[in-house]
Known about the structure:
Number of helices: 14
Number of strands: 25
Bound molecules: nicotinamide-adenine-dinucleotide
Largest sheet: 7 strands, mixed
Distance between the termini: 99 Å
CATH class of the largest domain: Alpha Beta
CATH superfamily of the largest domain: Aldehyde Dehydrogenase, Chain A, domain 1
Number of domains: 2
Strand content: 15-25%
Shape: globular
Radius of gyration: 24 Å
Structural class: alpha/beta
Amino acid sequence: MKKVIVVLTTKVATFNNYVNGEWKESVGNKTFNSVNPANNEDIVGRFQASNEQDVQLAIESAQKAFPGWSQTAPSKRASILNQAASILEQNVQALAEELTREEGKHVDDAKNEVIRSAQTLRYYAVEGQSFTGETYPNDDSNMKVSTEREPLGVVSVITPWNFPLSIPARKIAPALITGNTVVFKPSSDTPLIALRLVEALDKAGIPKGVINFVTGKASDVGDLLVTHPAVRAVTFTGSTAAGEDIHKKAGFTTRTQMELGGKNPLIVMDDADLNLAATLVVNGGFSLTGQACTGTSRVIVLRDVKDEFVQKLVEKTSALKIGHGFEPGVKIGPLANEKQLKNVLKYVEYGKQDGATLEYGGDHLTFGEYQKGYYVKPAIFTNVNSNSRIAKEEIFGPVVAVIEVDTYEEAIAIANDVEYGLSASIVTNNLRIANQFTKDIQAGTVKVNRTTTGNLMNAPFGGLKKSSTSTFRESGRVGLEFFTQLKTVYMGF
Ligand code: NAD
């Protein structure tokens, strides 16, 4: 009897760019795959491998839409953002599952991200409507002097994969509410969830050309997004290397807003609650598999309490369940892509070569359920030399370097002795030291007895030194400044 072989194939969907209100294939008709980092045989979707012609069309469409959108009533702009927020909220479970499948974070974290993104749209829908200029008293009773805020024009939005929905939301919402039009290029690791945000805006009735979405490699589309003369501003989140490149290429009249890398320290003082300190390091260093820009990557601990602290840290870390983002109780998912995996393993080797003690983890997990994913055991290094590579360079993965010191002054000197300045924390019960820390530390986000990670939607966010361009902050009310220009008006009656 003849054997019948049944081959089961799951059809992989192809997704398009969104230009001038239409979902379109790229001009070059090429695609790339977005892959599930928990199972590299699972292709999430095929996306347009766009080229400069696609970017050109997207920018032209944004340029054409600008006069109409900038004159649209703010309440109408706000209602579109609110409607898009409702669409995200109504689909939270499905969107969270897509986000997990594409990026790897736990589905509970993914749900929080979807909800946070919807809240961000709603926040700017309100805040943006009352963002205005000021009136200045003057000696001429027949004259009023005031400032007016105007949108800039076309804004390029370029984003990373680690918060693939909430970072775009916190850039696109303030851009749109203030009357700008947008060309959005997401990371090629997470184009699907980014597309869902554009889809929500489309369903919410955004006029054609106001938001445009182009996927593809940075080397194919990145330059034109930054250098096209119609682009008035580039808001970028990603690595410091890419940010520096973009900053250099952008023209004299193009504004840039850069949220970049970090090497975030947490100082453990000798009066600290060591249980709290260990919990903060586990949560700040290993949640999202260490892939938060504000993640804790250096722990600077007073020598007297180092042994007890490290013991607690290892204990808590070894209790973390590693696995698929859909499994209940999982705290560490896969790294987001193969490049990330190789990078983390490279730094684990650097740590060993540079003489640090690998106290826990650092293994590449390749057995059973981990086989097809990019899994590593979180790594804790002790006896780390503060000048070594794992103490100085951004790793962007679950690797924590513990550095011992004798005094607060030594701790601060080491904390500040890196090129980054994104986020920092101290664990202490000493109010004087806590207050001193807020002044001494070179970081844009300063925490006391809290994780280095996490920031409020309504408070400014950004870094110092090479973590940001230190020009315009994101988030909160000040997040609107980047997207508007000021005119000072002297009105004589
Ligand atoms: P990345 O710099 O490789 O890419 C980010 C985005 O920029 C992607 O869309 C990419 O395609 C694009 N890009 C890269 N080079 C470009 C260029 N020369 N011109 C134009 N576009 C370019 O970063 P990533 O790997 O996606 O994300 C990880 C990095 O992001 C880490 O360094 C992390 O610290 C940083 N990050 C920072 C923040 C923050 O708010 N400071 C938040 C999240 C992530």
